[in-house]
Amino acid sequence: MVQRLWLCTICLLLLLPLGGCWDSKYLDDLSIVVAIGVDKDPKNDDNIRVTLQVVVPNQVSDSQSGGGKEGIPVTNYTGTGKTLLETFTSMTSLASRRLYFAHNQVMILGEELARNGVEDLFDIVDRDPEIRTDFDMLVAKNAKAEDILKTITSMEKIPVQQIYNMIKTYHERVGVIYPVKAREFIAALQSDQDDAALPSIELIGNANEAQKKSNTEQIEPENYLRMDSMSVFKDGKLAGFLNPKESQGLTIVKNKLKRMLIEIPVGDHGIVSIAPIQNQTKVEAVFRGGKPVITISVEHKAYVLDNNNSIVKLQDCGQIHWLEHQAEKIQRELILRSMGRLQSMNSDAAAYAKYVYQTNPKFWKRNKKDWNSIFPDISTKVEVNIAIVGTGIRTRTYIGEK
């Protein structure tokens, strides 16, 4: 009898892990949200206007199988409310299926909304386990997020997929921006030792024409999306935009650089272009005379990509060292200019406060309330070490060989 009781108990316990489908969700019941745009409501300053881009399943399947009438594989829903949760709830009346956010890839903030402040916007994003916080964040420069998400793209069927790929490519090939995930942005908004920064995207052309399918039926569309530079925040509000060079400097300091071009002037018209491909940045605070100084140490290993003059002989070690020295000067000036721009905007997007706290917690606690007046006057010291480790498949340029 006891053995039977134990056997039944064991069988019941074994049934517990088999209940893994209790919260299963079927695609036929879901509206898959792939992008979120948030703007200020033009009719009510207390509200936000949210745009959700949702996949149209039958259009995606038709385009993949090659059959059926080809249409736009996404649709947009818009709604207004005081919070994201209120707006998401109200938009349920627009969708025939339950809105499902687990596959969201991008959230775009309209510039006007970002300038007014977004610090209290993301509680539902951070709290709801169904909303993953690994999607990319962007600011719509000179535009509404709604207009960005209405733009029909030519390279990808689903517009947000093209935006996602643009972020990745522009970061990995040019280094003007770096991706920022929602969880990183929320952490920066909550931190008193770091100001947030986000990549920006811009709509070139006419917003109304950009949402027409005829816009993509041209070899060179007149209305298109373009990645821009980094936007920086102060106390949860958009402080402004860096230019491309300043954005590269921030990318380097944040140790996010994958690749960029350094153009070294040679003579009156010549240029040697090198590309750092292995990069390491170390930032720390030191104290001199009781005041913090930020030291930035950068190491690049680089390849020569282009040599359009006959002056530089890449087989000459002395000239290679000269190129390295010139590139170090260019990078040093670029970083100093970028950090100076942040200080003029009083946006600590490079997290100077964090390094000061790590070095001297007592100083930070004493001066935390006065940081806004201390930060713009902090000195920055930059050391750059560049080693050219390759020159391509030839050392000499064909220019001037005749």
UniProtKB/TrEMBL annotation:
Subcellular location(s) of the protein: Membrane
Flavoprotein in keyword set: no
Residue span, Spore germination GerAC-like C-terminal domain: 230-392
UniProt keyword list: Germination, Lipoprotein, Membrane, Palmitate, Signal
Pfam families: Spore_GerAC (PF05504), Spore_GerAC_N (PF25198)
Keyword Lipoprotein found: yes
Classification via InterPro entries: GerAC_N (IPR057336), Spore_GerAC-like (IPR008844), Spore_GerAC-like_C (IPR046953), Spore_GerAC_C_sf (IPR038501)
Segments forming domain Spore germination protein N-terminal: 23-202
Membrane disposition: Lipid-anchor
NCBIfam families the UniProt entry points to: spore_ger_x_C (TIGR02887)
Similarity-based family: Belongs to the GerABKC lipoprotein family.
Protein's name according to its UniProt entry: Ger(X)C family spore germination protein
Organism field: Paenibacillus chibensis
